[in-house]
Amino acid sequence: RRAGATGHHLQFPRQEKTDFYIGGGPGSAKKLILEKFSKYEQWRSRKGTKGKEVRGAEERRKAKLNKAKEEQECKVKELTEAEAEALQKELDREKEEKAKKAAQKEKENKDEKKEDDDEEDEKDKGKLKPNAGNGCDLENYRWTQTLSEIELRVPIPRNLKIKARDVVIDFEKKHLKVGLKGFPPIIDGELSNDIKVEECCWILEDSSTILVTMEKVNKMEWWNRLVTTDPELNTRKVNPEPSKLSDLDGETRG
């Protein structure tokens, strides 16, 4: 036996007699060899076809990539100087129009704000500016406020020597009376807003000042006067610093 280039084993008859040689007729050996070579040619043909298919697929892939690259390059078009200049002018024009619109809008907003301020100023004419405690200093007493309470100080004339039993104070939900026995009330009027009567208190400081503390019912509102007969305060000028800003709603802060 000898291994041929085909990878198949071929048997050649020897001179001595064998079953292979005896059993075959004339031309049997040639026929066998031709069959082997025929199988080899078919195997080579299939292998060659498969290689061509692989190469063909690779070539098609490369062709597809080249086509996509060419299409992409075609999309990128370089502008001429005239086209670039025209495009820049168009961009500048659009930018200028946007700037004009923004300036006009800003002017309109300023005009509206000025009108609102003028209107508010008209409403606030004649109102008093709050004191440092967001209240008011009047002839016979002084009061301050936070969002939660009112503090009232009523000075006693220096020529009077009084004690706590000489003080007359009456708290009602929306009425306050403060005075001295034997004298006309210093305060006797309707309060600007409701108070919690059970939380109100007073003391006599150094026999010279009556200090009154009243708790508000509505803790989200600035009082514009203590009693309704007092001059009105401009609550827009209130300084909320003595109170916690976090306790104020948007309208109260404004």
Automatic annotation (TrEMBL):
Keyword Chloroplast set for record: no
Membrane spanning stretches: none
PROSITE patterns the UniProt entry points to: CS
InterPro entries: CS_dom, HSP20-like_chaperone, NudC_fam
Basic and acidic residues compositional bias, start-end: 44-113
Protein's cellular compartments: Cytoplasm
Chain ranges of the CS domain: 136-227
GO molecular function, one term: unfolded protein binding
Family assignment from sequence similarity: Belongs to the nudC family.
Identification of the protein by name: Nuclear migration protein nudC
Organism of origin: Amblyomma cajennense
